[in-house]
Amino acid sequence: MALLSPEVYLKKQVLAVQEYSILCATAIADIFTRPHYWDDVWAQMDSIGVGSMPIIVLTGFFTGCVLALQSVTALQEFGAVSKTGSLVSLSMVKELGPVLTGLMVSGRNAAGMASELGSMKVTEQLDAMRALGTDPIRKLVAPRLIATVFMLFFLTIVADAFGIAGGALVAIYLEGLNGSSYLHNSYQGLVYGDVVQGLTKPLFSAFIIATVGCYFGMKTTGGTQGVGRATTQAVVVSSVFIIIVDLLVTRAMIGIFGS
Amino acid sequence: MSEGKAKSGAATMDLPESSGPVVEFKDVSIGFDAKQVLKKISFSVDRGETLILLGPAGCGKSVLLKLANGLLSPDSGSIRIFGQEITTMREAELYKLRAHIGMVFQESALFDSLDVEENVAYRLYEEHVPEAEAHRRVVEALKFVELEHAITKFPSELSGGMRRRVSIARAIISNPDLILYDSPTGGLDPITSTTIIELVMKQRDVSHTTSLLVTHRLQDAFTMATHRFVPEKGMVALPTDGPNHGTDESTKFLMLNEGGVVFHGTTEELVHSNDPWIREYLS
């Protein structure tokens, strides 16, 4: 690969930010103006929401299990084993549920969007769509954005629920804790601000997954090799963005709710 | 991609009555990554005319077609389609204008997830043409390209030649006023190429649609210029009467080389050209 001068490299990065911003702004504007491609929205909701359910259930459940195991060991030292439920539910709802769901859906769907749109780009299907009078952003990006934002919200709730259930299973059957006490502590440990924080994060993650996946897909060049490159970039960039935005949202929420 | 239909229609633009050229390029230049592909290109195509674009690979023939459809914007110059300046047009206006333009892409560019009927009817669905009417027009277009038996097939089940024919059916279904053919015979065997060129000729001689055709196959270009489709016989024939040995007067040539126009004129002018580069290219 040819080495770029710092000036050319910086110009490319600034151009990429500009193009990404224009794509995001256009997709958001398309959501609020007609025509809408609702059939594509339902199809994407099925693909992203129902299709991601198994991996989200498994990820949430086993994360909850591991969290309970680790928590019991650590809390034993302080004689606070009864707080296991509270620790698991707080960790799952505020942090692990939203972030892990975002990362899993990013790996599955940002990659899928980048490869699907990338293949369409290199085979001139996007140009054909424009030539036939259809705006590809309205037809392909806006439905994916709506579907991801809507479905990631509910997938996060599913991951949280299975995480707490997994934690309960380990705490009760492996560690011999009282089930009623675990569930009571799980419930009592959560306050309004925690739930709001946990359910705000997937909205940002979903926006990142859909827009980054579609951006890299629509910018694909270089044939099948380019499609592979776009897919990898989409997953890497969206995953890193999710973690960075998670930090920013957490800080903002602490500022708003105070904990 | 699903076969979803928009809930509100794709609008079309009413074209102004114009006696001027359908396509007009004036000093058009475009480059990619510091490489100038087209340099100050100027030419025009009159109503009912077929312009064949010839030139070596990479000389900017496909880029020129994309410029004519507004899929690319030039760095400088003016492009007028149906008398309207498209270089300053907003994308939303371009979508309306494109309702009058059909385009056949180099590799067909059929939508993989849609079957042949949905591919051909794509524009009709966007315009909310009733389903029965859309089906009737799809069958009609597929009969034109002799592929009505493949209506339920998916692009992956079709051969290269069949995909091109479906692509032609998709381009002509809305009876466009301008058709852009981007290497419709590229990568095909000689027999299939002849079938495709006969379809292009049929469209030219039956509908008299203005068209731009990119090709790197000289035999296709000269077949277009010398042969005619005879509707009464339903086949292509070589006319022996008429001026200029029966060559089609409405079919002209534009030759590009190194980003510039090296020839623009009729078949007779082309074959009698004394330009050494043209003679070498034709030999």
Describe this structure in words.
The complex is a heterodimer of chains A (259) and B (283). Chain A is mainly α. Chain A has one domain. Chain A is 86% helix and 0% strand. Chain A has helices at 6-31, 38-76, 84-122, 125-131, 136-174, 179-189, 192-218, 223-257. In chain A, helix 2 (38-76) packs antiparallel against helix 3 and helix 3 packs parallel to helix 7 (192-218). The mean pLDDT of chain A is 93. Chain B is α/β, with parallel strands linked by helices. Chain B has one domain: P-loop containing nucleotide triphosphate hydrolases (Rossmann fold, 3-Layer(aba) Sandwich), CATH 3.40.50.300. Helix content of chain B is 32%, strand content 24%. Chain B has ten helices and twelve strands. In chain B, a hairpin with a 4-residue loop joins strand 9 (228-230) and strand 10 (235-237). The longest helix of chain B has 18 residues, at 190-207. The model of chain B is unreliable at 1-9 (pLDDT under 50).
